[in-house]
Amino acid sequence: MSFVMIIELLIVLAALYVGSRYGSLALGAISGIGLAILVFGFGLKPGTPPTDVIYIIIAAVTCAGTLQASGGMDWMIQVAERLLRKHPDHITFLGPLTTFFLTVLVGTGHVVYTIMPIICDIALKKDIRPERPCGVASIASQVGITCSPIAAAVVAFVTISNANGFMVSIPQVLMVTIPACLCGLMCAAAASYKRGKDLDKDPEFLKRKADPEMYKYMYGNSATTLDKVITKEAKASVFIFLGALLVIVAFAFCQMLHVKDGSTVAEAIKLPKMNIIIQIIMLTAAAANIMFCKAQPKKAVGGAVWQSGMVAVVAIYGIAWLADTYFGNYLDEMKVMLADLVTNYPWSIAFVFFLVSVLINSQGAVVVAMLPLAYELGIPGPVLLGVLPSVYGYFFIPNYPSDIATVNFDRSGTTKIGKYLLNHSFMMPGLISVTVSTILGYLIANVAFHGYFTTFIQ
Fold this sequence. Notes:
It is built from 22 helices and no strands. By secondary structure, the chain is mainly alpha-helical.
């Protein structure tokens, strides 16, 4: 590795670090500064922006935004809250499952902001240390991204993999990630079940409870969505959204199933590529929500889901373009340096995915930025599919909005960022979840892929 390569890599890392410190749009924008230095200062050839992935994110976020604007998301949260309040003793397991499946359905982990206060409230009223369910639930809201058929990370993995000769489909990805990630989350929940001191034995909590004003703050109000009126249009928007997901999955199966002449069903009936299909279906569903479910466009673009999605678009745009520019210019050198490592230990790419995620706070951006390099290095597709859960590492430094919000939602003060930054409430469940999910995903993809999946699609 030459001195110039090292300097340029440091510029890339510096741009990612500074962008993460500012957060939000800065991740993508400050990546532009790094890109400008590499192109105009060092004369590197500009890479290619990930336009296909960006278009899909815009379409999916627009659909989810209209779902939120129509009130459909409120109905989904109400259904989840009824389940949680019906079984409060199991909140440490049901809380994470709820945030996980909401993310799987909607494609973004930011839905956690609505359900997390409810999880905290149920735990506190049941005298369960809120840190136990809250820490895992926040992790689960992000783990669900690699298990959602419309999430950027999944769609990008399929698109990039197909372009590199690994013809995997969205259902095949989910057949690996969903069971692996669920097992990882349940292990994290089990480890959190008796985590920390019980509330009646925690001196810090008892001190807060003894203060009349603090007691009123903690126990005076119940966070709930059950008092919200759900209109028939809101319910209809949920069915439209779920119907759109089913249609996308059905088209994805057409890309897998083969007819007698060996071609796929999609090829036989001349279907467009999945990235085009997803965009068409999502935009159509968004239009239906606007026309028939009273989803006001201004309310949709003002909602948290749409705004967070657009921030993700800018982040992926800048980060992926910067990474593609650097790695694209030094691909041959990278192959020489990493040849022995990826040949003998191809699974070690999981550590790269994880470390990059710690820096850039976006699973979709990690996939778009690093997956092409992984394929160029000769790592097999099933290995990369197996370690896909490792693209979630931004819990490591507790600066992600969902983690910060969870700390604020927990009125008991048990969910917290530690004195030494890394000893926070999300570290233990995050490490357990990602480690178990990655190991199981690797085993599922590499042991079962060529057997069960190959038989299934032929």
